[in-house]
Design goal:
It holds the Pfam family HET. The protein has helices at residues 14-28, 86-91, 100-111, 120-123, 129-136, 139-144, 193-199, 208-215, 262-275, 289-299, 313-316, 489-504; strands at residues 43-46, 53-56, 67-70, 116-118, 148-152, 172-179, 182-189, 218-223, 226-231, 235-237, 303-304, 307-308, 320-321, 345-346, 357-358, 360-369, 378-387, 391-397, 400-403, 411-416, 429-439, 443-444, 450-451, 454-463, 470-480, 522-526, 532-536. With 538 residues, the protein is an alpha+beta fold. The chain folds into two domains: 14-237, no CATH class; 259-512 and 520-527, no CATH class. The strands form six sheets. An eight-stranded mixed beta sheet has the order 2-1-4-3-5-8-9-10, with helices on both faces. Strand 19 (400-403) and strand 20 form a beta hairpin. The longest helix is centred in the last third of the chain and has 16 residues, at 489-504.
């Protein structure tokens, strides 16, 4: 924006500032105006001059302006769309019966001279599975095609409202500094305020909200840290309505238009998504399906229960849960997918030059969706992995597995997916499947020498007790070299694992999966509902 405003929050009127942001974005931001022109939501809420009502968009041409609302749900009773009230709501929606967050969002929409708004609980029939699946399948278009997404960032429920705090600390300002004959403008800001206002907000604890933010071309965050404007080109707030000279935060939104480094982008999206909560456990994959569809439309590739086949899936399979919880009682994804468990998930390092050695390779995959939609709910999947084999072990404690068949005891550190597995009997045989390994970066030691520590990553499996040689994932393992030469323990972990792998697996270790030294490969096959079958290649 071209403005000479360098004072603290010149304009406190959120609607007026938002009009300026929208106008500037419309006129000057090419990326933001590449909004998706596609399928409209099945219904919109009309909030213009006439009676507020629910309207069907059947037969409408695309390109109609509407806002969307991103908000927290809660268990409180509030007005929703059901089969029994769908007809009355198409005649008139009683505004006085709406919760505060809905009323505020409608008020802002009207003041911006926009006639329509999309609110999930009022535009999707809540007791109609088919309607829910239809609308969920087009979330990429619903939010991607919205003119503006309103995010009630600090409201803890639907009654909390869309509000900004006037009693807060200034997050940024600009000053003019005279240096000799020159006058310079300096931006003073709190670099962490964006993350606190957006990623650490109450709204960010709702998993669905991530795709609502990432898919929308423009979002207005409203909360206890003021009004924050975010589009694909600019981040601004009511302290600096002209925009920050440098972008803040993770940049995840802006990079949805540039997915050259999909592995890193997807890993960050999964980390943020799995930190958040879901009211309904079965929504684990549907709540991310809009982002997955967007990625697929940009890059193509095969989507497998939250992982991408064409983006070095062997590395993605090495995900780990940072805070293990109880295993979900309802099946929703195979055990090799992070969507099968709860808790924050982190991915293995995937930067160029890191972990480039492969000890196994995915050779085939089959998809079994619940309906004709590979991005949503599943009934099962099959994944075939070509590998040299596995090491056998038993649990010592929740953090270690001892390798069997060795004269000298070797403990491999493991990270279990759920707390259920922490009580496994030491008599249960486990299987350690190495997947990737190699350098993990460069370290400068205290003596000035450069050191490139190595690691090996893989999965912890156990037999299902069903058909012969059937397995499922229960965790992951990592054996790495220590970066401090005076400490030998971790250094022994990496080399100790490699040595035992070579001895127990016919002295054949795959490097790059380009050739086997003598022994034929084995196929590790994960079948429907997360089981795995270990058998010879046909």
């Amino acid at each position: 924006m071209n403005s000479d405003t360098f004072i603290y929050c010149e304009d406190r009127n959120v609607v007026n500032i938002t009009r300026r942001w929208l106008q500037d974005c419309d006129e000057n931001h090419t990326d933001c105006n590449k909004a998706q022109v596609g399928t409209l939501p099945g219904r919109l809420l009309y909030v213009g001059e006439d009676q507020m009502r629910l309207v069907s968009t059947a037969g409408w041409a695309s390109g109609r302006h509407y806002t969307t609302l991103s908000h927290r749900w809660n268990a409180d009773d509030f007005t929703m769309l059901w089969n029994e009230n769908a007809d009355p709501l198409s005649i008139a929606v009683p505004e006085q019966a709406l919760p505060g967050t809905f009323s505020d969002a409608i008020g802002i929409t009207r003041k911006l001279s926009i006639d329509y708004i999309w609110i999930d609980s009022l535009c999707i029939i809540q007791d109609d599975e088919d309607d829910w699946r239809r609308e969920t399948a087009i979330m990429e278009h619903i939010y991607g095609g919205s003119y503006l997404n309103l995010a009630a960032s600090s409201a803890t429920s639907v009654h909390g409202g869309c509000w900004v705090s006037n009693n807060r600390v200034c997050n940024a300002f600009r000053i003019k500094v005279k240096v000799g004959d020159d006058e310079l403008v300096r931006e003073i800001r709190d670099d962490a305020f964006y993350d606190r206002a957006v990623w650490d907000s109450h709204l960010a604890t709702r998993a669905w909200a991530l795709q609502e933010k990432l898919l929308s071309p423009r979002t207005l965050h409203l909360g206890d840290r003021g009004a924050i404007w975010e589009c694909r080109s600019t981040i601004a707030n009511d302290d600096l309505p002209d925009g920050f000279t440098q972008n803040l935060g993770s940049g995840l939104l802006r990079r949805t238009r540039n997915l050259q480094h999909l592995q890193q982008w997807w890993a960050e999206a999964v980390r943020l998504f799995t930190k958040a909560d879901l009211t309904c456990a079965r929504d684990k994959l549907p709540a991310l399906s809009g982002i997955a569809r967007h990625v697929h439309s940009q890059k193509g590739g095969q989507y497998l229960a939250g992982l991408w086949r064409d983006e070095r899936i062997e590395a993605q399979l090495c995900w780990r849960v940072e805070e293990p919880r109880l295993r979900p009682t309802m099946w929703r994804a195979p055990s090799w997918s992070w969507a099968s468990v709860d808790g924050p998930v982190s991915y293995a390092p995937t930067q160029p030059g890191m972990c480039e050695d492969e000890y196994a390779h995915v050779v085939a995959a089959r998809v079994t969706p619940l309906i004709d939609d590979v991005f949503s709910e599943l009934t099962g999947r099959v994944l075939r992995i070509s590998c040299t084999g596995v090491l056998l072990g038993r649990m010592v404690d929740r953090d270690n597995v001892i390798i069997l068949g060795e004269d000298d005891p070797f403990h491999c550190p493991v990270h279990l997916d759920t707390i259920n597995e922490s009580s496994l009997s030491p008599n249960v045989t486990l299987y350690l499947l190495p997947l990737i390994g190699g350098k993990q970066g460069t370290v400068i030691r205290r003596d000035g020498d450069r050191f490139e520590p190595k690691l090996i990553l893989g999965l912890v499996l156990r037999a299902t007790g069903g058909n012969t040689r059937e397995f499922r994932r229960i965790g992951a393992f990592k054996c790495e070299q220590c970066q401090v030469p005076e400490t030998a323990l971790n250094n022994d972990l990496y080399h100790g694992f490699i040595q035992r792998l070579e001895r127990q697996l016919f002295n054949c270790i795959i490097t790059g999966v380009s050739g086997y030294q003598g022994a034929p490969p084995t196929v590790l096959m994960f079948v429907d509902k997360g089981d795995a079958n270990l058998s010879a290649l046909p």
